[in-house]
Amino acid sequence: MAKEGDYFDEKLADFFDDLDDLDNLPLLDTIASITDRYCDFQYLDEGGIKIIHRCRDLKTGREVAMASLKECAKDPQKELFFKEARLTAALQHPNIIPLHDLGLKGEQAWFTMKLISGASLEQVLQDLKDGRSQQLNTLSERLDVFIKVCDAMAYAHSRGVLHLDIKPDNIQISNYGDVLLCDWGLAKVMASVCDEELLECYTFNPKELDLTIDGLVKGTPGYMAPEQTRLVKAKKGIATDTFSLGCVLYKILTLEKPFKGADLMAIMNNTVNGRFPKPSVLNPDIPLSLEAVCLKALAPDPQDRYASVIDLQKEILDYRQGFATNAENATLLKLTRLWYNRHRTLSIAGIIILLISFSTAFFAINSLKLEKINALQMAEKLQLEKLNALESSARLKLEADKLQLENEFHKKFNKGAAPRFLQRAQIAFESYNFDDAVNFCDSAVELDPSLSDAWALKGLLHIIHEQFGAALNALNKCKKKNALKQLAKDFYQIKNDDSQRLSLSHYLKLFQRSLTTGQVKLSGGLIHHKAYSEMPLDQRIEFCKGMIEIHNEKSLRRFRGGKTINFSYDPKIKKLDLSGNPWMQSALIVQNFPAYAADFSYTGIKNFICFRKQPLRSLNVSGTPIIELHTLENHNLIALNISHTSIGNLRKLKDFTLLKTLNISHSAVRSSAILKDLNGLETLTIHQGQLTESDLKRLNPATKVLIHKN
């Protein structure tokens, strides 16, 4: 029995040894067989269009955070989402959150990043204020966090990247002391100093994306700089991030944010005017040196703030090391006290020596000689301090010269990129992204001020934005002859304040002038800009009437019938009626009109472009010259009437899954090939003999067919 037991134990041990040997083998097959890399999703947080999950990466075996866009996200939002990811991936710094992977799963965009086990600085400070936690309870610990954030931003600025949304919510602190600056969704690339690889991330947020507060500002009230509020005219730059860092420093010192108010406008007005309580008012124990640094960083004028994040960080480090900060303009007495604190042992030794010297002098006869010796010692000491100061000044000058040389190198290196920015500006203009086009033009002329085509396009864009002063400035720098210059001069006499808008009558005159002078790009830009601008409904209606009459002036003159335009809108049912205007060949101005129903029957329109961005449910284009459906983009249509048109191909309607009522009578449609696939169609109207019996049998049995006999 003992031998059998020994044999069994030996076999059992061999079995487990074999398992140990096999334990390492399946990993190759496991990794190779992984199709869905991420699993075990757990909800963490979400924002406007973004949602964050904790999940497991099966390939690496680690837990990561996955940011993904919600299903409602549009393609432009996905584009910005990926640009944020690529920019974050390009910034490799210990205090910037690292990005691991990105991709598309079906139509959903996502990227993964480091999972931080901790809390935001906002939450930590709030818990400290409420007494729920003692984390970062000392000012020294909080300043450690601030210095690391400054490290991250100094690095980002050296790469030519602005964050533009620095706030405690975007600063994550792990349970093990890691400090990471997150959320680069509003970041902007400074084209003149950025690396070549970051140029692909250079873009701007289109107006239609929900990335702004009330469509006005980008950023977080209470932490944004005055130039981000749009209430003042100043270019966003390094000083903008410096201001936000000043707000974070204020929160670190007082546990309160600096700018508050009853509503958004009050907060922005307080920001612009620099109205906030000094840190020492909220906490008398705050060192005056740090308060002075904070106040300088929060100066309303960018020129009065720190020129760089490094300068701001150096002030904090000087305070930590016992030196006076430049911001406080310290007195000689304070400088002496700080010197004493830094060299306490040496000072005490010096005092003892002086006491001994004075004692010796008291008992010595030659006191004058001792005084001369002491004077020489003091002179030597002052000379030494002067030499140290000169050495420090020379070092700072050397660093400044080096920085200037680097900036000049970057500008010279990136001058060749100016035509690329002009090309992007032209593409943005052609797709009616006028804000992007202006910013791309700004970057092009900043890199190469001699680029005439960029100045010309910039002048055109400013006229479209009704900014005639800026347009004149740009066109004057364009070396080529430009017909728009006289137009800009004429309308500058009418309105010389670029922050104001033209009246309706003057805008219509501008539009008419663009047509009579053959400025096609200007007239098209004016239509699109006004159509997609926010304005009251009654004002929009008047604009539409005026623009339609001017745009169709030639055809209206040739028309022999009535000259009065039929234009009505019922706000209760949101129906727009322009039917019975056969002279109306263009109605592009009604794009983005808030209509659920539109009747454009028996007009002269030739396509569906004028209905873009309208939330239409019902559309009637009966009796129009339209011959195709490929420009129809209103996918929420429930009812469509294309009778008495030359439309023959219905393939486009396969994408209109909500369509229930369709009238194709007396049209060019002669086949049920597409009609049989419209499963949701409830009513179809045709004329006698339009479809064969076999065609009708192929239709969905649930579709009711109405036949016009004449």
UniProtKB/TrEMBL annotation:
<dbReference type="InterPro" id="IPR011009">
    <property type="entry name" value="Kinase-like_dom_sf"/>
</dbReference>
<feature type="domain" description="Protein kinase">
    <location>
        <begin position="38"/>
        <end position="317"/>
    </location>
</feature>
<dbReference type="InterPro" id="IPR000719">
    <property type="entry name" value="Prot_kinase_dom"/>
</dbReference>
<feature type="transmembrane region" description="Helical">
    <location>
        <begin position="346"/>
        <end position="365"/>
    </location>
</feature>
<keyword id="KW-1133">Transmembrane helix</keyword>
<keyword id="KW-0472">Membrane</keyword>
<dbReference type="InterPro" id="IPR019734">
    <property type="entry name" value="TPR_rpt"/>
</dbReference>
<dbReference type="InterPro" id="IPR032675">
    <property type="entry name" value="LRR_dom_sf"/>
</dbReference>
<keyword id="KW-0812">Transmembrane</keyword>
<dbReference type="Pfam" id="PF00069">
    <property type="entry name" value="Pkinase"/>
</dbReference>
<dbReference type="InterPro" id="IPR011990">
    <property type="entry name" value="TPR-like_helical_dom_sf"/>
</dbReference>
<dbReference type="GO" id="GO:0016301">
    <property type="term" value="F:kinase activity"/>
</dbReference>
<keyword id="KW-0808">Transferase</keyword>
<protein>
    <submittedName>
        <fullName>Protein kinase</fullName>
    </submittedName>
</protein>
<keyword id="KW-0067">ATP-binding</keyword>
<keyword id="KW-0418">Kinase</keyword>
<keyword id="KW-0547">Nucleotide-binding</keyword>
